[in-house]
Amino acid sequence: MTNIISFTAPPLPHYIHGGLSAFAPGDRHLSRHNIGVFDLLVVRQGTMYVGEDDRQYEVTAGSALLLRPDAYHYGIEDCRERTEHFWIHFQTTGDWHYGDDSLQASKSMLPEEGVPRQIQAFSARKYELHLPQFTMLSQPGKMYETIDRLIALGETDYWSSSRWQIDIHFQQVLQLLAASIKKQASSPRAACAEQAAAYLRRHYREDVKLQQLGEELRFHPIYIARCMQAEFGCPPIEYLLRYRVEQAKLLLLRTDFTIARIAEEVGFHQAAYFTARFTRYEGISPRQYRQRFLGG
Fold this sequence. Notes:
Strand order of the largest sheet: 2-9-4-7-12
CATH architecture of the largest domain: Sandwich
Number of strands: 12
CATH class of the largest domain: Mainly Beta
């Protein structure tokens, strides 16, 4: 049974720092005792071999491992290929516990009997956030995108508006991680949608056509559109446009490229159309977005 780490909220866990690391063949994870923070590892490429106390894990691409702050972590063996992984350090000021039975409702989480509803309305009700210690992610591509944005925003954390966005993106990371607990065998619809999304993410700079997408996946374009609408809430072209905007946000924060160049870099042929789409999705223009987070 999967081990679960459960956090009592409020308060929710909070983000501290994160990054992207690359290991060459022969590198391995550091050995550390009681680091004092939770360390979330999400592998994007290759495989990491990591142990925690008496447990050992082979963390492959698309999987995540959550290391505890009070345990001993160590590399089991060297990486055999180039391996890229995101790491996120976070902590909580609330209670947390670890075990394989954490999904059972805690008595302390249940409404207190005999307390009038009027009084309950003036106090926060506690609940538990359950995270798997080791899991295959249900939406690895979306996790990579969210962490990438989180790290980019972390580079601008001098601004209060950035700090708020950092907190939002970190909670999205936790939500994606928690969703993996409930992941069942992938349905054909979900598999088709994820394949289509992965293809669009790889080719977002190109002029992708629905017919081309269908030929690559060997599904009818209408079926692909229905699958993506069901799984992501939007058809393929809308998903592609939103992904381009997300990549543009990273360039706005990490480069001094002009708006026109950023539009071209992410697959828009016209800067005006890019600005219109960006404003529609974000509520502000690309220039205003850059000024808000970089103060320029």
